[in-house]
Design a protein that fits this description.
By secondary structure, the chain is an alpha+beta fold. It has a domain of 57 residues. 54% of the residues lie in helices and 24% in strands. A three-stranded antiparallel beta sheet has the order 2-1-3. A hairpin with a 2-residue loop joins strand 1 and strand 2. The longest helix has 24 residues. The radius of gyration is 20 Å and the shape is elongated.
Length: 89
Amino acid sequence: MNRSAKWVLTAIVVALMGYMIYASMARVRHECEVCLEFNGTRRCAKGAGATVEEAKRGAQTAACGVLASGMDESIRCQNTPPVSTTCPT
């Protein structure tokens, strides 16, 4: 492969990576913090997403990841109403 072909290939790869990063960041429009109380323990976590609901769900999933152990507890934790929800965007 000659030198100019390497530069063209490198430029294409860099452009593709830049587009992928931009496209994934463009979807994050909302951020939320959700606080849960589960099994007597309180935990707050942040989440981000394209919609407020997606951001809330991500935050609740993050909080439940610490609070719950096992599939049954994870499902119950996901179905627990949050103590507080803050979405400043």
